Amino acid sequence: MDYEEKVRQELENWENSFYKTPGLLEKASKKVGDKINAIIPAKVQNTITETVKAIVRTTLFGAEYMPKRMVERSLTLEQADEQARQVISLYQKIAAAEGAGTGAGGILFNAVDFPALIAIKMKLLFELAHVYGYSTNVFSERIFILSLFQLTYSQNRKRSMMLNRFRDWNNEKLQWSSDAEYYKDLDWETFQKEYRDAIDFRKMLQLVPGIGAVAGAWANYSIVEELGGFAINGYRIRRLADNARYEQWE
């Protein structure tokens, strides 16, 4: 079995996992998210939504997350996957250190952790784009990065639809230009709630006295690992589609 065939099998298994019954962690996270949403005042909800908006705005229009790494256009898919795993491992360590520091600092420091963790994850996604040969100078690639972020924290029923967009990204990307329709049309409330629901259970442990530092490190490490796995598979889908298109031209 060649590497691309192996990847196709892994992608099929990965997609099939979306249709499995939610596990205990997912159910617990959803319950925690529902309870938190019920008690958080509207003013706080709005603040969180605005924070997410600001980070998305930076992703689309800023240079803050632009990696120093050059765009790797000559790597095979296998080589890109290997480099991607190395990059993810580095960012897991960075996120774990940040989570340990804020976890040890109590509730006020945990408030700082929310935007800091998203920033770490966005920097990771920008770097992975270059690993797989896609330049983040291109506006549609930034849309793809946000789509990967959204895919990771969406409910399973939305994921299949998003993956179909990834397979057809060469046509999908034609609709995205710098007029930022994506930014204006996104349902911000749903976006931030899905993200928060997906990580709440892990992050809540960070507030438990005595274990905050350890829990914060573990939460951030596992959250970045999860995002990295989704990103690898998202870019695998695109690379396989690109390779198939190039073979048709030859």
What are the salient characteristics of this protein?
0% strand, EcsC family protein, 11 helices, mainly alpha, 250 residues, EcsC, single chain
SSE layout and pairings?
Layout: H1 3-16, H2 24-39, H3 42-61, H4 77-104, H5 107-131, H6 139-153, H7 156-167, H8 169-172, H9 181-185, H10 188-204, H11 212-249
Structural description of this entry:
The chain is an all-alpha fold. Mean pLDDT is 80; it is low at 103-110. Helix 3 (42-61) packs antiparallel against helix 6, helix 4 (77-104) runs antiparallel to helix 11 (212-249) and helix 5 crosses helix 6 (139-153). It has eleven helices and no strands. It has one domain (3-249). The longest helix has 38 residues, at 212-249. This is EcsC family protein.
Return the string of H and E elements.
HHHHHHHHHHH
What's the count of strands?
Answer: 0
Amino-to-carboxy terminus distance: 23 Å
Q: Over the alpha carbons, how many angstroms does the gyration radius reach?
A: 18 Å
Beta-strand share of residues: under 5%
Instruction: Return residue spans where pLDDT drops below 50 for at least 5 consecutive residues.
Output: 103-110
Net shape = globular
Mean pLDDT: 80
Count of individual helical segments = 11
Instruction: Specify the structural class.
Output: mainly alpha
Helix content estimate = over 70%
How would you characterize the largest beta sheet? Answer: none
Number of domains: 1
Protein name: EcsC family protein
Organism: Cohnella ginsengisoli
InterPro entries: EcsC
Pfam families: EcsC (PF12787)
